[in-house]
Specification:
The chain is of the alpha+beta class. It has three domains: about 5-95, Ribosomal Protein L25, Chain P (Beta Barrel); about 100-185, Ribosomal protein L25, C-terminal domain (RNA Polymerase Alpha Subunit, Chain A, domain 2, Beta Complex), CATH 2.170.120.20; about 195-230. The protein is about 25% helix and about 35% strand. The chain has helices at about 15-25, 45-50, 115-120, 200-235; strands at about 5-10, 25-30, 40-45, 60-65, 70-80, 85-95, 100-110, 125, 130-135, 145-150, 155-160, 170, 180-185. The longest helix is centred in the C-terminal third of the chain and has 38 residues, at about 200-235. The protein is elongated and about 60 Å long.
């Protein structure tokens, strides 16, 4: 998938100028790298976001069309608005076809549903890592790295050293001392709810109820006896 971004050179600079551009529907950016000078950019926000949504935008060689002049670039950085979820600023780096580049690419996990640990044992898949830092020539840059869970059983995991990478691609974080797990299948946790009311509390409630009933009966009896005594005294008089 080839992605082309149309941009113009940005003449106005500074925080205030960038704010005005955003209000006008334009995203400020910058192009740097190589032997050329850095250039401030302005890009149509809607057009940029439509391209930005594609996974390939983040891990592939892009074509930047700067007022008719095209250059091969990669996405280096971006800032998102914390609430509106739109791009506030974007950075592109020029590439040299003969120089290796350092890029983060995503993992694509396949055959999760058919893994023995899931299909036969009812386990849950946990993705510990979702992307990886690689080093390669621009021509060898993959859009993603595939991780196959087809033979993974309950309690097992796949480590970085077990991942098959395309020719010419180096996993920069993989060393003899550092071989992290990137995905695993584990047994689901079962939550057991304890009953709040115990037998002891139930017995206590019953005793309280019986005591209340006895008090009521005793009170009624003493009241009736007092009335009879008073009646007898009046008759004697």
């Amino acid at each position: 998938m080839k992605i082309e971004i149309n941009a113009k050179e940005r003449k106005s600079k500074g925080t205030g100028a960038s704010r005005r551009l955003r209000h006008e529907g334009t995203t400020p950016g910058i192009l740097y790298g190589g032997v050329k000078d850095a250039i401030s950019l302005e890009i149509d926000s809607k057009e940029l976001f439509m391209q930005f949504r594609h996974e390939a935008f983040h891990a592939s060689i892009l074509t930047l069309n700067l007022e008719g002049k095209k250059e091969s670039v990669i996405l280096r950085d971006f800032q998102m608005h914390p609430v509106r979820n739109n791009i506030q600023h974007i950075d592109f780096q020029r590439i040299n076809e003969n120089e290796k580049i350092n890029v983060k690419v995503p993992f694509h996990f396949v055959n999760e549903d058919t893994a023995p640990g899931v299909k036969l044992e009812g386990g849950l898949v946990s993705h510990i890592m979702t992307e990886i830092d690689i080093l390669c020539l621009p021509k060898d840059l993959p859009q993603y790295i595939e991780v196959d869970l087809g033979e993974l059983a309950m309690g097992e995991s796949i480590h970085l050293s077990e991942v098959t990478v395309p020719e010419g691609v180096e996993l920069t974080t993989l060393t003899d001392e550092n071989d992290p797990a990137i995905t695993s299948i584990s047994k689901p946790k079962v939550v057991v709810e304890e009953e709040v009311v115990t037998e002891a509390s139930e017995e206590g409630e019953e005793e309280d109820t019986e005591g209340a009933e006895s008090t009521d009966e005793s009170g009624n009896d003493s009241g009736e006896g007092k009335s009879d005594d008073e009646g007898s005294k009046q008759e004697n008089k």
